[in-house]
Sequence to fold (280 residues):
Amino acid sequence: MSPRKAFDEARLMLVGVLILIWTLIPIYHLFVMSITPQAEAFAGAVWPKSPTLDNYTTVLTQGHYFLGHFWQQLFNSAMVAVAVAVLTLTVGACASFAISRLRVRIGETVSNLALLTYLIPAAFLAIPMYATMGQYGLLGSRWSLILTMVTFASPYAIWMLRQYADKLPYELDEAARIDGASPIQIFWLIYLPLMMPSMVAIGTYALLLAWNEYLYAFLLLSADTEITLSVALGHFLSTDDAPWNLLMATGIIYALPPAAIYYAFRRYMVAGLTAGAVKS
Fold:
């Protein structure tokens, strides 16, 4: 290896290490605060003198006023996220099959319009979405949040799945039709198995999008037994003497499921999100 090349690699490694440290610093402080007793919460120490897991015990046993519905709110977050992922995949798979494989007349227009919807910031649609859910009597229901998040996730799902579907050999569909397969059979037995890598990636994207949503969850849900945990975390800041150690412990617990999901499916996400990026 030439000195020039070794220097370039060392420089890139140094930059990578600095970025990694910068990224991990907030996570480190989040963890440190979560194991710090309330009496030492604002001591400013790099590591607490008496680290404890009592904060996690308090969270898991709902031992604080702000944590009275912790498990219900965690379930709400999981229920909303899973429902959004399933509905988004259903809409995206059906739409991409119709556009790419059945080649409906306005399929190209629908695909392009789906992507153009992202030109409008999601925050601008908050009031119209609130009014719409009110007209249909869905305010305060988890379904209002589910349908809203499906609305935001579906255009991206349609676009990405369509790009991947275009790469599948159309001869597979023709051979299936010759054998007497119906469009439903082609969709179920040929299309879905071949689309699985991209569908896992899109499903994970939709799930994480719904799991981390705060604005619309705060706007559309109100009862303590209906809100998601992301909204419940904001309630900690409604007092002057916020229990920051409990807030950080709850945040750590809330961050574990999406982290586990990401690392479980990261291989499929890389393969699925890059599929269709280059036309063969």
User: Anything to note?
Assistant: The domain at 65-275 is CATH 1.10.3720.10 (MetI-like fold). The chain has a mean pLDDT of 87. The chain has two domains: 3-54, 65-275.
